[in-house]
Amino acid sequence: MVLNAWCPHNMMQTRGYVSKEGRALAPSSKGLVLVAFLQRYFQQYIDYDFTSKMEQQLDEVSEGSVPWKSVLKDFWGPFQKKCESLKDLKVSEVVDALNEVSRCDSEHGSDLIVDVQNC
User: What is d(CA 25, CA 42) in angstroms, rounded to the nearest whole number?
Assistant: First the structure.
């Protein structure tokens, strides 16, 4: 599980996505379900290239070379459409998709066990 820089560790702990084990953070079942959900339905927004491009655009906004409204518009339009397309998802569809992600990760050597009832 990759922890993104935009989410402070204490927030992830408070929300129950991770727990501290010594000096490391370990994902909880809830955190694994969230990651699987994001991988399945919002892959383009958690991709490293997207994050890198967004950081570059935000740097340009802070430098004053790019208007913030155009960056927000370019992001928000497609993101809002994506969210709108998912609003009618049934829980069973999400669970099936999470199981699909879980199987895919297991095939690539990463164990992802999704226990939806304990989240």
Answer: 23
List the one residue out of 27, 48, 33 whose CA is nearest residue 101.
33
Greatest extent of the chain over all pairs of C-alpha atoms, in Å = 48
Which residues are CB-contacts of 50 (< 8 A; sequence separation ≥ 6)? 44
Q: What Å distances lie between residue 72 and 17, 46, 54, 77, CA to CA?
A: 28, 17, 10, 8
Positive/negative CA dihedral, 42, 14, 59, 71: positive
**Average pLDDT in the 26-51 region?**
87
- Predicted TM-score (pTM) of the model is 0.66
> DSSP of 42-91, one letter per residue?
-HHHHSHHHHHHHHHHHHHHHHTSS-HHHHHHHHHHHHHHHHHHHTT--H
Under DSSP, the state recorded for 28 is -
